[in-house]
Amino acid sequence: MPGRARWAHKIAIAQASKTGEVMRKPGGVFQPLSSKGSLSSDLSTLMKEFSDVVAHHAAAHSDASENPNDFTKSEAIRAIVEVEELVQAALGYKAALLERVEP
């Protein structure tokens, strides 16, 4: 029954979120996001990570790049890291907001 499996998965994630433990899931690791702290610091982190993505994109397309018209392999790998950090910051900000809506 797909519906039950889906709910069971959500329950396991919710339980891990409350205990703060890291869960191994197929295809990766689930690590609960912290929603503690002020929203202003969360927003500051989000903007810093966005700035990092933009700065890396600009550097990869500058005249200093081996290929200013596209990402080189190493630039693409670094861009992925920067985007992952941005996504993590965005989800942390969202978690902090959700905690204020759904205590």
Largest beta sheet: what is the strand line-up?
1-2
Q: Categorize the overall geometry.
A: elongated
State the assembly state of the protein chains.
single chain
List unreliable stretches of 5+ residues. 1-20
Write the layout of secondary structure elements.
Layout: H1 2-19, E1 23-25, E2 28-30, H2 39-60, H3 73-101
Antiparallel strand pairs: 1-2
Helix pairs in contact: 2-3
Structure notes:
67% of the residues lie in helices and 6% in strands. It is mainly alpha-helical and 103 residues long. It has two domains: 1-32; 34-103. A two-stranded antiparallel ribbon has the order 1-2. The two termini are 31 Å apart.
Notable features of this structure?
103 residues, mainly alpha, two-stranded antiparallel sheet, 67% helix, disordered N terminus
Short description:
This protein has 3 helices and 2 strands. It is mainly alpha-helical and about 100 residues long.
